[in-house]
Structure formats: C-alpha cells, structure tokens
C-alpha cells in the first residue's frame, strides 16, 4: 500500500453503498439469451430496494487483503494468492483488479444472506465505487461513471463465477429506482438501454403497491440459472423464452401506463411458465406465498433465479394490505422467514466525499 493510500484510510475509512433489487424477466440479461433472441427485443424490469450493502475500506497488514462479511465470515491472503473460488472470491478479485493490498474490506448487508436480491453483485458495485473514489483521491484515476462501475462489476463476477451471469443486478445497484432494461445485443453500441419506469415523485405511491418476503432459506442461483442456460443451449424451451419476452414487454408497458391489472396478469403468467420449466424455482413456502397472492388478486414472483430467497408481490393497495397479513401467517411456519421492511431506493450507488 502506498503511503498516500494508508494515510487516507487511517484518517478516515472509505465507505460506499448500493441497493439490492426485486425483478421481473430476469435471465434475459444474460448474453447467452439476449444475443440469439435480439430479434424479439428482450427486456427486464427491476426495482432497487432500500436494503443497502455497505462496503468500508480500512488499512491492514502490508501486502495482505482481508475481507470480512457478516454471515459469511472473514478471510485474509496475500494479494496475489487470494482465491477467487472462495465464498468471498469476488471481493478478492476486485482487490486484485485494483492492485489494492494492505486493505481490509468490510461488507455489511441489510438484506438476508443469499436472499436472491443480487447481494454479491451489489457488494461488487459498492466496492468498485469505493476503490474508484479512493484512487481518484490519490490522483491515480478519475471517478468511474455508474455505467462503467456496473459493467466492470459484472465482468469480474462473470470471470470469477466461470458461468454466464446477468447484468441487471449491477445496473439496479448503480442507478437505483424502478427501471426497464432493453437488451439489444449490439456490436458497436451499448448492448443495453435504461428506461425509467417510475419517476421519483411517484415512488412513494408505487411503494404501496409492492410487498417483499424472505422465504427463510438461502438460494443457490447457479443451480436454477444453470438449468435454464443448459436447456436453452440444448434448444429446449425456446418457445417459452420467446413467450417470457412478450410477457415482460407487456408487464413493462402496463407498469408504464399505471395499469396494475394487466401488470399482475403478466407477472403471474411469467411465474407460471418458469415453474413449469423448473418446478424447484420456488420451495414449499415460496409456493404458498405465490398461491396466497393469487387468492388476494395480486401478482407474485420469485426474485433473481429463485430456488429459495425472496418472493415479491404487486397489487392494488387494498389487496396488498390484505396480502400482508396473509403472508405473515404463511411466513410464521418457518423460523427465519419474514416480511422485509423495505421501500424503493431512488439513489443507487452512494459514494464517499473525499
């Protein structure tokens, strides 16, 4: 670590934070899907939630990188020996990219561990943002733009994961708000574009139409996503993926128009198709939450790749209020399950002022 970096971190830890997300139409943000399906105009939708992951940079022993994360643990290695296949491997890979040694990376997430809310991607965005600010303060780099931070976080995560990964989690973390993402798969221009669905002045009202629940068990996104990728590469379910694109387009159009009835219908049809392709995309509690939402006239969908984690609901405010009590009853059957007290985060990545 340079003397300049140590002086900065010793005098004041550098902290950045970013929000997690709930989503609709996920998987279509994986290049395996959006390049061959580009003629259908694939898109995804996500909501940045007010459950932030905070990353702090402090000094540690020279030449070492230490990462501490509540719920995962702590590990310390020399920079060039840090394992990228470790549960904290993505954080080590980001440190290696920035050649940041003598740094203690602390990760603190307000969302449950492995809750399918994009936690690892959010941590990566926050960490890259923190390093960007730190190195700008040192005079080494300019600040990275949000788009650059999201793309870099995705690229490093995909390298570490060794499998295709989506990009919408990083984008939700970087930008915040409620957005639709169009996946064009272009060569000379950006492969995606952002469309703001809910303006800031309407966010407080939109919050009354959503509900998020944690099923009480962690998810393993690679299991479900891996099945979808393998099936798609084998030529299976292409018709279903085309239908998922059409449904997601309908959902986005309905949200844009404030038509909750059509949005709920599209949400439930998309969830049903996913459950047909991979029944284990929701567990017993998740299935009960989905069925209860249907009974209350609401839409329900698993977050991320499912297989545990969270379910989120959309509905008219009266129906959502009724669903809240019904979901609490379902969730009481599992010790760790609960409703998540969260609103919408309109700010996205928050960087330190250095």
UniProtKB/TrEMBL annotation:
Domain GHMP kinase C-terminal positions: 253-331
Any GO CC annotation of this UniProt entry: cytosol
UniProt GO molecular function: ATP binding; galactokinase activity
Record carries keyword Nucleotide-binding: yes
Entry annotated with the keyword Transferase: yes
PANTHER family: D-GLYCERO-ALPHA-D-MANNO-HEPTOSE 7-PHOSPHATE KINASE (PTHR10457:SF9), MEVALONATE KINASE/GALACTOKINASE (PTHR10457)
Domain GHMP kinase N-terminal positions: 96-177
The entry's keywords: ATP-binding, Kinase, Nucleotide-binding, Transferase
Protein name stated in the entry: Galactokinase
One BP term from GO: galactose metabolic process
